[in-house]
Amino acid sequence: MLKHWLPLILFASLGLLLWAGIRLSQQRDPNAIPSPFIDRPLPAFSLPMLHDPSRTVDSASLIGTPYLLNVWASWCPECRVEHPEFEKLARAGVIRVVGYNYKDEPQDATRWLQQFGDPYEVIVADESGRTAINLGIYAAPETFFVDAQGIVRFKHIGALTPEIIAREIMPRLKAAAR
């Protein structure tokens, strides 16, 4: 008797498993790719400044207050979408915004900033993209929230929106201030 029901039980179990997987994936943020750096120090780096390549900025010099590390490029269409949000944050003085110019020609990046505005306290340039590999950067845009001790507390892949800022960045910023 069980022999006749076994295929139906297996089919129903497989269907239930598939349904549960779909429901769980709908509840997650599609841009939330787990980062191995969450709750760990941002990997050390030293890169030239975009506006003055003779000077470098290293990750240790950024420690002291929380900041957003925004990975952007002039060739990135989504970077234009999120750029006004960084301008608002910088204007309001809510948090330091550090630019990470990724695989871009310096003259293209500079022209882009002249056209759309420059909300960044400092901008590092990673023309080759080699340092980005150590930071776990996939593409532009990406944004890291780094606390005052240099610990990565949040990473977002894709354009940063007002909703993500309100839901993810601001609570972490308030927690870091305590």
UniProtKB/TrEMBL annotation:
Membrane topology category: Single-pass membrane protein
Main location: membrane
UniProt GO MF annotations: disulfide oxidoreductase activity
Signal peptide interval: none
InterPro entries: Periplasmic_diS_OxRdtase_DsbE, Redoxin, Thioredoxin-like_sf, Thioredoxin_domain, Thioredoxin_ResA/DsbE_sf
A GO cellular component annotation in the UniProt record: outer membrane-bounded periplasmic space
Cellular localisation: Cell inner membrane
Matches recorded under Pfam families: Redoxin (PF08534)
GO biological process: cytochrome complex assembly
UniProt similarity note: Belongs to the thioredoxin family. DsbE subfamily.
Protein name: DsbE family thiol:disulfide interchange protein
